[in-house]
Amino acid sequence: MASLAYQLARQLQQLSVLVVDDDPDMRKVARSLLQVCGVTKIHEAKDGISGLEAICTLLPDIVILDWEMPSLNGADFVRIVRSPGKFPLPAVPIIMLTGHSERTRIVEAVQVGVHEYLLKPISSTALLARIVTILAKPRPMIQRGEYYGPEPRKLAAYKPEFDPGFGTLAFV
Questions:
Q1: Which residues of 121-144 are buried (b: 16+ CB within 10 A; e: fewer)?
Q2: Hey, which of 63, 119, 139, 171 would disulfide with 150, CB 3.0 to 4.6 Å?
Q3: Is pLDDT above 70 for 161?
Q4: Phi and psi torsions of 26, nearest 5°
Q5: Distance between CA atoms of 51 and 109, rounded to whole angstroms?
């Protein structure tokens, strides 16, 4: 068991993460949380355009992306990245980090090819769980019609009786 924890800690330490958010305070929070998780190679981009450029030059292992940004929002950013043959790193795992909890936003994020979806405010535990999911259970990238992205999980349940205003989605 200790060797598994050691392997995970080593993997996190070698991970390169790009944080794309127009809010400098949120970038700072994300950086701090990533450091708590053991990630040491953290890069930042202040908007979607510089985030696209950073992916091309830095080749990060994971991108953490805000939804609301000027000029290029998170969903449009993902659409550009998920363009095989046009974008150099279309399979990079993307974690959408947003304050939008509406089910329609979650569905849109899945439809554009986001790997994971996290609501602000976040904790290091929640962030680490999403990163571990990406590392330990990588989903193959698929092309289905217009969609290119991670193979969607099967939606197990939507339980409106547990809905605290935004719904509880369970994936398998």
A1: ebeeeebbebbebbbeeeeebeee
A2: 139
A3: no
A4: -70, -35
A5: 18
Report how far residue 24's alpha carbon sits from residue 21's, in angstroms, rounded to the nearest whole number. 7
Contact 65, 96 (CB under 8 A): yes
DSSP bridge partners of 158:
169
What does the DSSP assignment read for 28-44? HHHHHHHHHHT--EEEE
The pLDDT > 70 percentage for the chain reads 88
* Residue 64, CA distances (Å) to 55, 67, 77, 91 in order: 11, 10, 12, 14
Could you tell me the maximum CA-CA distance found in the chain, to the nearest angstrom? Answer: 47
How far apart, in whole angstroms, are the C-alpha atoms of residue 110 and residue 19? Answer: 19
Q: Which residues contact 132 (CB under 8 A, 6 or more apart)?
A: 8
Strand order in the sheet with 62-66: 41-45, 16-20, 62-66, 94-98, 116-119
Are the beta carbons of 27 and 51 closer than 8 angstroms?
no
**Tens-digit pLDDT profile for residues 102-155:** 999 999 999 999 999 999 999 999 999 999 999 998 999 999 998 999 998 775
SS3 113: coil
Which amino acid is residue 157, in one-letter code?
A: A
Domains of the chain: 2-171 (3.40.50.2300)
Task: Say how far residue 117 (Cα) sits from the centre of its chain.
Answer: 6
